[in-house]
Amino acid sequence: MNKLLLALGVSALSPLALAKPVIATSIKPVSMIVAAIAGDKAEIQQIVSSTASPHDFAMRPSDLKKILKADTVVWVGESLERFLEKPLENADKEKSSIEWLALDGMALHNFAEEHHHGEDEAEEEHDDHDHEGHDDHDHEEHDDHDHEGHEGHEGHHHDGVDPHVWLSPDNARVLAKAVTARLVSLDSANTKYYKANLASFEKGLNAKDAEIRKALNKVNKVPYIVFHDGYSYFEQHYGLNHVGEITVSPERKPGAKKVAEIRHEIEEHNVQCVFSEPQFSPAIVKTLLEGSDVKTAPLDPLGSKVKMGTNAYFSFLDSLSGQFLSCLG
């Protein structure tokens, strides 16, 4: 009889014992670092699809549910993901969230003033922006979106702090430590597991960083132009030779004046490659390079094709460095 009662007691408690912390993440690079620490002990719910861009994202009811159900929300911050501000506030998740940009120990860059030129003329053709590259934007459901995300984004300009912090291995370390501390507080029974994963992540990151630096040193003098000014952390970390960008904000299509300026920059700096981005239509890049021998290749700042797992962030760094090497080498 006692054995039966014990069995029933264990059965009743098992759902609680097996419950995993639920972590909602904003974008895929955040998910990669969370996954490295969480392993199979926590559930990750990503808000922005891997094929979408946070620059023009709008929340759906299903995204709001992820926030409500999460034990912790991990996001980059307001300057990249303004669409998350009000939902976090409304769900009373602000204090329990991890805002990457606000963490102690972050090495942050400011957008350079010279990158603001061309912003006015970019507005000229903004209404004609080609959304073909936004594969994940479900326009049939667009009317049901929380448009506060888009309205807030209208004020998004590339000035102040550059929010693309996931492109810095040093900043990735900072987030990994913060995620470890939060998971330990949520799930103390697996403290050793999370701390071991952090140690493994830091060791692997040091090795990957050194490997990539050695490879990119061979092309760090080659001039190139990027689709938008969002790679400064990676470029400065590895000493690459970025000489310009097509647009300061990727949701804006450059006007005729900006196109002429870029063509002049290509000639003046002997640019070897102009990078596109898979989240946005490459049509403007093709237009820029008509009649020239300049190479082009996609540069994916979000790692949309990287397979999720504990080593995903390392694969992401490999993928990004490989994209640079393929066009600059």
UniProtKB/TrEMBL annotation:
Signal peptide (residue range): 1-19
One Pfam family recorded for the sequence: ZnuA
Highest classification ranks of the organism: Bacteria, Pseudomonadati, Pseudomonadota, Gammaproteobacteria, Oceanospirillales
Gene3D superfamilies tied to this protein: Nitrogenase molybdenum iron protein domain (3.40.50.1980)
Key word Zinc present: yes
GO molecular-function term, one example from the UniProt record: metal ion binding
Protein name, entry field: High-affinity zinc uptake system protein ZnuA
Entry-linked SUPFAM superfamilies: Helical backbone' metal receptor (SSF53807)
Origin species: Marinomonas rhizomae
Biased composition (Basic and acidic residues): 128-162
Family under the similarity heading: Belongs to the bacterial solute-binding protein 9 family.
Residues covered by region (Disordered): 116-165
GO process terms (BP): zinc ion transport
